[in-house]
Amino acid sequence: MTVKERVAGEEVRRVADLAHLQLTPQEEQAMQRDLSSILDYVGQLNELDTANIPPMAQVAEVLQASAAQDALRADQPRPSLERDRVMKSAPDSDGVFFKVPKVIER
């Protein structure tokens, strides 16, 4: 592995397998270069001293602004939909579960 190849080819193949991707040898090499470049860039970012830089945005601030506008309902238990009624609206079901076409072939 060279300095530019921080990610091993075996790791690329493992990730591709987990993601159900079939990569050509050329695509594996390109992915190896791209992932290594990303890790190099993240490494550069980790070298920055951000101790005195205030955060620019926080999720809590967004949620508080939304709550002020009543965008969020109270988190309280309530009855769910009736199964029979929902299954009648399904294109295909066995009465308990939805049936969907198989989308992943392995």
Automatic annotation (TrEMBL):
Transferase listed as a keyword: yes
Enzyme class, spelled out: ligase
NCBIfam families: gatC
Organism for this UniProt entry: Silvibacterium dinghuense
GO biological process: glutaminyl-tRNAGln biosynthesis via transamidation; regulation of translational fidelity; translation
Function: Allows the formation of correctly charged Asn-tRNA(Asn) or Gln-tRNA(Gln) through the transamidation of misacylated Asp-tRNA(Asn) or Glu-tRNA(Gln) in organisms which lack either or both of asparaginyl-tRNA or glutaminyl-tRNA synthetases. The reaction takes place in the presence of glutamine and ATP through an activated phospho-Asp-tRNA(Asn) or phospho-Glu-tRNA(Gln).
Gene: gatC
HAMAP family: GatC
UniProt protein name: Aspartyl/glutamyl-tRNA(Asn/Gln) amidotransferase subunit C
Alphabetized Gene3D superfamilies for the sequence: Glu-tRNAGln amidotransferase C subunit, N-terminal domain
Keyword vocabulary terms for this entry: ATP-binding, Ligase, Nucleotide-binding, Protein biosynthesis, Transferase
Oligomeric and partner information: Heterotrimer of A, B and C subunits.
Keyword Ligase: yes
EC number(s) given by UniProt: 6.3.5.-
Residues annotated as transmembrane: none
Gene Ontology molecular function: asparaginyl-tRNA synthase (glutamine-hydrolyzing) activity; ATP binding; glutaminyl-tRNA synthase (glutamine-hydrolyzing) activity; transferase activity
The family this protein is said to belong to: Belongs to the GatC family.
Pfam families xref list: GatC
Domain of life: Bacteria
Reactions accelerated catalytically: L-glutamyl-tRNA(Gln) + L-glutamine + ATP + H2O = L-glutaminyl-tRNA(Gln) + L-glutamate + ADP + phosphate + H(+); L-aspartyl-tRNA(Asn) + L-glutamine + ATP + H2O = L-asparaginyl-tRNA(Asn) + L-glutamate + ADP + phosphate + 2 H(+)
Signal peptide (residue range): none
